[in-house]
Specification:
This protein is an alpha+beta fold and 563 residues long. Helices cover 16% and strands 34% of the residues. The two termini are 36 Å apart.
Length: 563
């Protein structure tokens, strides 16, 4: 459950005027993410890596990345930050037009991640050594700090499933690393920006008619979203295409990915209320080499004679594919239907039954504050197990609570609320835990739940994540029984030995002597105040209040008995 950047480096820098440079001293320097610093020797056991874990282990919609440090640079100049922050997987989609001939079922997947580094956490080294870093520092000091956004493409595990099962039965608890391609950017965290998601204009795959895939082929089925920002003072629209264009092929590193061919793609504009799309740019360079050089971001010059700045603020941005020979034009991505967006920053809230919390929801209209009051709808979804899914393995389907299912609500919330026009800050909405289990809280600005939008994959929706932990209580069990090793292993430790078998390389959860030798440290490591720390125990973060109290009581008894 560890995660790290390896062989990730700075490819280019782009200045405030949109010019890209490849000769700055910072070019080629390493970019790294790491775990939280270890305050005690015991907490060095998992090494310096960041931690990745799912809020809902039965699905793939709520993966989280916990990290405690970020750095970029070399011995001459660089940036570093030591702070516990979290990123959430967004735009998790299947995004490969090729047929995978291997064994694992998700190498065609991809997701985008984002985390913010507040100004007070940043340290800059080498003033005067790098023009790019000096400019970035000055801009960050005038903003809130920096934001790191990156996409992960083609993750593929090293060990096949059957081999992994056999190793486990042999008592060989090994890691199963998955390698992936990473492309990303470091930029400014500005007022009004979320910490873990873009607040810019959103372009989603067009659903037709006609559907793009009927004309352009299967690759158009795997288009993802794009974000757009119309720049002030320049005739430029900046496009974040990090999740937009699918790959075509599965050649492992060091081979570079190949982008699927979707024809000649241009930026277009559609007038308010509908009408013909007007092409407003030259063809876009969306091949992988440009993705890597620009971190998935393109500055696209538009023709001010074709469309004015005011027109761009009112109409819809689109990406179109054109056939120069036939004049055929197909809409790939469009802002129609997504001009107003609602987003939640925290997708990983852990609660015990009866607890309450708040979620902060931001609404934007074409990347700015809403020009009207917006009614936001919340919907609860839960993962329902499907006995046989891909590759004959059990899978899950997200199902809406209160639809035709018999699911019971796990989280209490107000199903609708109004986000006021002109508001720039997020609106806080209360929630309360009712029943154990994971839940997604989907957000829409219409009265239809995401499951009713058949043309939209779940990865394109906005939602938060809540995990209500079990309602465990062992007070009815006599103290000498509930703190015995036999009871503790059967009730608590056996479960985590299965969930996190690699931990047995450090402490064997089935070994009474090892566990009791570390009892006091284990009790310290499960302190809920450490949950944002990468060294928090358990690494799966699913320890209920009742089990935590039991472990603390057991540890106290072990320490007392050894005196």
């Amino acid at each position: 459950m560890s995660s790290s950047f390896t062989q990730v480096s700075v490819c280019s820098v782009t200045d405030s005027n949109g010019r890209t440079h490849s000769d700055d001293p910072i070019i080629g320097s390493l970019v790294e993410i790491e775990g939280s610093p270890a305050d005690m020797e015991f907490f060095r056991i998992r090494g310096p890596d960041a931690v990745i874990c799912d809020l809902d282990p039965t699905g793939s919609a709520t993966a989280q990345l916990f990290l405690g440090a970020f750095s970029l640079g070399n011995g001459v100049a660089g940036i570093s930050a030591t702070i516990n922050v979290r990123a959430h997987a967004r735009r998790a989609l299947f995004r490969n037009a090729a047929v995978y001939e291997g064994e694992q079922n998700f190498p065609g997947g991809g997701a985008s991640w984002q985390f913010a580094l507040p100004l007070e956490s940043l340290r800059f080294k080498g003033a005067g050594r790098s023009i790019a870093l000096d400019a970035l520092r000055a801009a960050a000091e005038a903003a809130r700090g920096l934001v790191v956004r990156f996409g992960v493409l083609r993750p593929e595990p090293r060990i096949r499933t059957n081999e992994l099962i056999e190793l486990f039965h042999q008592g060989r608890f090994v890691r199963n690393p998955a390698e992936a391609i990473v492309v990303g950017t470091v930029g400014l965290w500005e007022d009004g920006d979320l910490t873990s998601a873009s607040a810019d204009r959103s372009l989603l795959p067009a659903s037709g008619p006609p559907r793009p895939s009927t004309i352009l082929g299967i690759a158009a089925e795997y288009l993802g979203p794009a974000a757009a920002r119309v720049q002030r003072g320049r005739d430029v629209v900046s496009l974040d295409l990090i999740s937009a264009f699918p790959e075509d092929g599965f050649d492992p590193p060091p081979a570079k990915p190949v982008k699927a061919n979707l024809g000649t793609v241009r930026l277009g504009w559609a007038p308010p209320g509908g009408g013909s799309v007007v092409p407003i740019s030259r063809p876009l360079a969306y091949e992988y080499a440009t993705y890597e050089t620009r971190g998935g971001v393109l500055d696209v010059e538009y023709d001010p004679r074709a469309v004015s700045r005011d027109d761009l603020d009112r109409g819809d941005l689109v990406l179109i594919s054109e056939d120069d020979a036939t004049g055929r034009r197909v809409t790939l991505l469009t802002e129609a239907g997504s001009a107003v967006t609602a987003e939640v920053d925290d997708k990983g809230i852990y609660l015990d039954p009866g607890d309450s919390a708040e979620i902060a929801i931001s609404v934007r209209e074409r990347g700015g504050v809403p020009r009207r009051d917006v009614t936001v709808h919340l919907w609860e979804y839960q993962s329902v197990t499907v006995p046989e899914s891909a590759n004959r393995r059990a899978g899950t389907v997200l199902t809406r609570v209160g639809s035709e299912s018999s699911l019971r609500q796990r989280v209490r919330f107000v199903p609708t609320f109004v986000f006021p026009r002109g508001r720039s800050e997020p609106l806080v909405v209360p929630i309360a835990a009712m029943r154990p289990g994971p839940a997604l809280l989907a957000l829409t600005v219409d009265d239809q739940g995401p499951d009713l939008l058949e043309s939209r994959p779940w990865g394109l929706n906005s939602y938060g994540g809540v995990r209500v932990l079990p309602r465990d209580s062992y007070r009815s069990v006599p103290p000498d029984v509930r703190t015995s090793w036999e009871f503790m292993y059967r009730t608590v430790f056996r479960y985590y030995r299965l969930v996190y078998p690699a931990m047995s390389q450090v402490i064997d959860f089935s070994n009474q002597t090892q566990m009791e030798d570390n009892a006091e440290r284990i009790a310290q490591g499960i302190d809920p105040r450490l949950r944002s720390n990468t060294r928090f125990m358990p690494v799966s973060r699913d320890l209920s209040a009742g089990k935590r109290a039991l472990i603390v009581e057991w540890a106290a008894r072990v320490v007392r008995d050894r005196r």
